[in-house]
Amino acid sequence: MSMGRASGVALIGTEGHMIEVEADISQTLPAFVLLGLPDASLKESQDRIRSAANNTGLALPPRKLTINLLPAPLRKSGSSLDLAILMSAWAADGHVTGTDGIVFLAELGLDGRLRPVRGVLPAVASAVKTGFSRVVVSRGNAAEAALVPGAEILAGDHVAEVAHAFRSATWKPLPGGTPEPLDHQWGGSSSTQVTERLADRAPGEETAGADAGSPALPDLAEVHGQYEARFALEAAAAGGHHLLLVGPPGAGKTMMAERLPSILPPLDEEAAMEVTAIASITANAKTVTSLQRTPPFESPHHSASSAAIVGGGSRVAAPGAVTRAHRGVLFLDEAPEHSRQVLDSLRQPLESGHVSLHRSAGSVSYPARFQLVMAANPCLCGMNTGAGTQCTCTVLQRRTYLSRISGPLLDRIDCQVQVERPRSVSQSLESSGEPSSAVLQRVMRARAAQRERLAPWGLEMNSQVSLKLLSHGLRLPKESTGLLDEALDRADLSLRGYVRVLRLAWTISDITGEDRPGEEHIDAAMQLRQQLGGPA
Amino acid sequence: MRTKDRTGTLGEELAAAHLREAGHTVLHQRWRCRAGELDLVTRDEDTLVGVEVKTRRGTGFGHPLEAVDAKKRERLYRLLLEYAADQELLAVPRRLDVIGLILAPDGSCRELTHLQDVRP
């Protein structure tokens, strides 16, 4: 038979598309034809494949080899299809058999070594979802591939091992001798076997476990005093509210923001999968060996371009900081110093939870459900705090500084607080603050309460609640909202501000363990909504 | 005669013998014109066949068939056309075959590959 088949996966964003690789050997002069919109890096695979085959001792026949990558209209790129192409070619030549429906994900070295590729986790996940559960990867990707439940993984170091595992009846011994058998065999109990063996081989490396190797996060205990800001941080964590911290230099804004991940609940299975998949496709990713359970924390410098923040690049756009912060925190230090374009480009992902990036080579959609934390000085010199006597800014400078954060963006930030420099030494340095673990307990309890209450509407956090829901399903009695209604009547508060105060009030009542917010909760919520540059 | 030419002649002899066995009638061996040379011209039933013979003493420099690239194939088709015009055989269907030969050190044939009709 002169036809062979194998499968691969092409990734567009974090979404995998199954690729069927067909190989045909025709009795005519030697040539290598690659069909199905391969890009330059994929076209190079033909030379890698011939060399790898020669050096393995299973040279491809001196005939015309036609490789077809289906579906034809989908653009394919990268080197992860190398192994699939070679296996289909060998299948066409009769060396191997049974490659149809098996997913191969590895790059080939000229000597036939299998090399790890990026994006194995999302690729295997979508393969399994489409019904292709058997996957062959390089040993370097074994742990990552094994994270996908339901996947049966074969991992090897050399293409000879893979060829041997799929040898046909007419198999001839290789010049290099019989290769080592591959890790794991189909139908074994579970894919964790692979990772166990991996651990045997490299004792220094982290093993793939539930949450191995998450670095120790900075702890809230290191923050002395700052009770108001701590409370704002806790409320932001509990309700998933976006947060703006305004205060003079040295007040501890950055320190607070960096400690937010330590009081966020660990990611659940689904979220951890999404976050790890994003890490897997990011260019500078280390090898993924375990699911990431800690919410990510991204803090781009204020010189970042909007392409760096929302994602960009020519051809198919690469993910940006908002995507890397998915299910975690995007922290913009010195927020007013960020370019206006960058700040406003955040509005769409804040609203929809994803970014759609369109380029000539095609559009791609990345998840971007992040919690936004911004820190800002109150003015250009940073001293316009308290009485503001030390401030050297002109009135105009003071007015324009915070307004660099545009109204529509501020509108989406529920929680806006002033952070003051600690005044009293005794208060701030004597005792250390409450540790993150204790705060996390309350946050988790509050999250559970919200999930239970909001389940009928398909929501999870107070920050997602709309005005409609607040005025119908979650309407509060007049006695509780009296203070707030007055503020609205006095035009101290816009209707949007009204909604945000109510959302925060619900979160605060969840933290304190009440059924519904009372007057004191609404009062506290209004404290977390201090007006910063313009009406709330 | 230089070694490489001897290898070539030897290969052509072996190829001609193979073609006769396969039922071809050899019309010309090393037919030359201004544009170049056809190694073998044969008749296979009603078809005029131009045959390019590529002989090597090993695969260290690649398989002999790999030496016939698109450019060379174009040239061979032109030569075959010239031959047909010269012999007034333009009405006869024609095709191009390639024979790749690998010789053993003693000059015997180790591997012979006959590709018929090598149109792209």
Automatic annotation (TrEMBL), chain A:
SMART domains: AAA (SM00382). SUPFAM superfamilies: P-loop containing nucleoside triphosphate hydrolases, Ribosomal protein S5 domain 2-like. Residues 239-423 form the AAA+ ATPase domain. Pfam families: ChlI (PF13541), Mg_chelatase (PF01078), Mg_chelatase_C (PF13335). Residues 172-215 are annotated as: Disordered. GO terms for molecular function: ATP binding. This is AAA+ ATPase domain-containing protein.
UniProtKB/TrEMBL annotation, chain B:
One of its GO terms (molecular function) is nucleic acid binding. InterPro entries: Restrct_endonuc-II-like, tRNA_endonuc-like_dom_sf, UPF0102_YraN-like. It holds the Pfam family UPF0102. Belongs to the UPF0102 family. PANTHER family: UPF0102 PROTEIN YRAN (PTHR34039:SF1). This is UPF0102 protein GCM10011401_14750. It comes from Nesterenkonia cremea.
